Amino acid sequence: MVLTLLFLGALLLGSIPFGFVVCHLKGIDIRKVGSGNIGATNVKRALGSKWGVFVFVLDALKGVAPGVVGGLVFAAQPELTGSLEPAAMRLLLGMTAIVGHVFSPFVGFKGGKGVATGLGALLGSVPLVGISAFGLFFVVIVITQFMSIASLAAAFSLPVFAVLYNKSGFTIGILSLIGLMVVIRHLENIKRLIKRTEPKFSMKSKKEANETGGSEGLDSEGAEAESLAD
Description:
Strand content: under 5%
Oligomer: single chain
Radius of gyration: 18 Å
Order of helices and strands: HHHHHHHHHHH
Mean pLDDT: 88
């Protein structure tokens, strides 16, 4: 019963569409802006950088919370983890939150790409892997200026870092699934990268870019590439 409640709680928390809610409170339907995605990148596009960062943090916390709460419960009731290590169970809870985010029933099962929530899930269960993957992401975005490439690099690195940090085979498998989920959610970005039509990342929102007469980070239709937190 306790495990069921933990996983249901993780799924429900993950499914809260913070990007949609924040934009709705501002009188904007985020699904009709830019990429139409509810993630932080599209929120930045609609409302500006500070709101994009705000939603990114909220989405990340959706991944952190299940692992932290699960860790407290498993410390009090270690028998709940069965033969699995506690970190693996916390990671499963985080992955459940990612699924809720990606397939949120509150927005017609068309949620975000799961990277912000995924980062939170890693920090809440296997922090060394999460920090390492984020560090790689940061290096790649600085070098390439493509959010999508950085996100994909971080996704592919998850099982590699898990092996380097001597995680269990089960944990490596779950991290591989999380990475695969991120890759699948970036298929459109991959197609644009192949066609060389993927725009580079800009810290400016669409409104800010228009006000300064710039177009960096926007494609021909005025939408940035869906990227890290979308």
